[in-house]
Please model this.
Amino acid sequence: RYYLLAWGVLFVGIVFWVLSAYVVLPFPAVNYLLVGTVSETLLLSFALADRVKILRHTTQVLGEKVKHFRDLSQVDELTGLYNKRSMHQLLYTEMEKSEMGQGHLVMMVLDIDHFKQYNDKFGHWAGDEVLKQTGNLLLTILRKEDMAFRYGGEEFVVALPDSSVEKATNLAERIREELRK
Model:
């Protein structure tokens, strides 16, 4: 709209400038051309500012969508834990740190016993609830720097950077006890 208005104002200024050669107008002919040119410049500035505003908004919306889809590709939607794909990416980095002597990495693999029989007896909805509760339990118990992954089915992997086998054993027992409850 600013572009059309700018070109329209310039066109009117040019028309008046041309008409001033044939008709007596209250102002000198040059003034009409100057007013048209200045008005066009201002309106084109508004048009540019409007376009920049639209592009910033579009960039922000696209950035939010990229983040949303990146999160979807890295997180298991049922449990809220990292998925198998992100596990490979994150663990590669942590293992490199560990190999370079920048800390230890302890890993646990958890498997829910008799999960197939539970699913068969109570249905997949009930099985999904067990998986969700297991994911919530892991997110609640683990430290901020620890990482929990749903590896597949009822299998989970927990990575404990800068931890010891003794701490991991105690944590595994605590997780087992909470799951038993």
About this structure: The chain is about 65% helix and 10% strand.
